[in-house]
Amino acid sequence: MSAPVGPAANLDLRAGHPPILHSDGGADPVGWTAHHRNEVRQILARYGSVLVRGLGLRDHAQTAAVMSRLTSSGLLPEREPFAPRTQLGQGLQSATPWPASQQMCLHNELSYVPDPPAFIMFACLTPPAGGGVTPVGDGSAVLQALPPALVSRFEQEGWLLVRHYNDDIGASWAEAFGTGDRGAVEHYCRGAGIEFTWDADGGLRTRQRRRAVVRHPVDGRPCWFNQVAFLSEWALDPDVREYLVEMNGPDGLPFTTRFGNGEPIPEDVVAVINQAYDAHTLREPWQAGDLLVVDNVRTAHGRDAYEGDRTVVVGMGDPIRL
């Protein structure tokens, strides 16, 4: 199905795929984006995501300029990463480091910070030889697909992100908080509602309780908005998890998630959440120069396993207070 959108583009709506907006902006992608900004934002508001094809994005500076045109306040720096991204300039970042052979399950970016980005954007500069799709899933549909009793518990309790910053895996606390000053880290944690304790060897342990279900700030629809499954210990490679538990004990994992009352979330609950995501996932293979714009509150995203080289860069914009 195809619908006209302005004089320079068409919108393709196909079952199982995100909306694809075909542009003729390859000669001047920054100018095209500035001119069609409202159209892109309207499509995003209606469908929760849109893949813009035909911009021919080729380099970091051009891509950062295009992404900035779609935000209200420019691109945002990342905070509290679990795996540090490479900063590429002007707010543009590399994709999250994650083994190419492993699936990255759907999640909402930075759902554990007090003011997460309203939008997250992905640009493909080099498509992989196979796989590597950035799937998206509607958080309202996922919420409806989950067992009511499980949703009710998460609505009442929220979820906990439990982290142990050490030298084994993931970001150090200095990388996550952007400073090696303990006092500055403690000040940030107090302001963000994060409980913290320091280990004798200098490691840092944190716990932050967040809502798992939120209402969209524009249309008020309830959305499954969290990283309960993605940051679960059960998302780790089984061999890696076994090694980390053996070395550090079950409380020494670099990250895991729990119910809001502190109880562990079993592996089968994580599987149920991922099954709901799978039932409401849209996919479109990357082409060089593509831009995917995602409403971060309404729509979760992930990453399929892939083969060959893959260069996808990321920008986030417009922080919102939930």
From TrEMBL:
A GO molecular function assigned to this protein is: dioxygenase activity
What is the name attached to this protein's record?
TauD/TfdA family dioxygenase
E.C. numbers: 1.14.11.-
Q: Does the keyword Iron apply?
A: yes
Q: Which Gene3D superfamilies does this one have?
A: Clavaminate synthase-like
Alphabetical UniProt keywords: Antibiotic biosynthesis, Dioxygenase, Iron, Oxidoreductase
* InterPro entries assigned to the protein according to its UniProt record, in alphabetical order: AlphaKG_dependent_hydroxylases (IPR050411), TauD-like_sf (IPR042098), TauD/TfdA-like (IPR003819)
Q: Where are the transmembrane segments?
A: none
Q: Where is the TauD/TfdA-like domain?
A: 28-313
- What cofactor is this protein dependent on? Fe(2+)
Q: Which organism is it from?
A: Actinomycetospora termitidis
